[in-house]
Amino acid sequence: MHISQEQQAEIIQAIKEAELGTSGEIRVHIESHCEGHPIERSKVLFFQLGMNQTDLQNGVLVYLAIKDRKYAIIGDKGIDAQVSPEFWETIRDEMRPYLAKNEIGAGLAWGVRRIGEVLTNSFPYQKDDINELTDELSFGA
Fold first, then answer.
1. Which helix (DSSP H) or strand (DSSP E) does residue 14 occupy?
2. DSSP 8-state secondary structure symbol assigned to residue 48
């Protein structure tokens, strides 16, 4: 699995910027391989990363298995109640051209920014908001 320090920094910066306008929490998890469907893997990771524990149920996980070229985006109950089921697929499709060209940092950053735009509308930033989940990337096998 190869993702450069610059790409990681680009993604983390996108997360920080996206979360400035929302109480929502965005995480990105990257690993080499995904056995099975990426949505199912994302659901397992969502709970392992504690993303189901946000107060407003407004966590979003962006998942990428680099070598298998599989990726998914899932949201917690609070967000899914606010957006259409096709919403995550639309963002995923917008990321595809970047990922197809192996522009991993740019593709994930694009997706994170788009998620942030929607979260800002549904879950605006609150003055007493705390960052409930780390902005750092997580990595798997």
1. helix 5-19
2. H
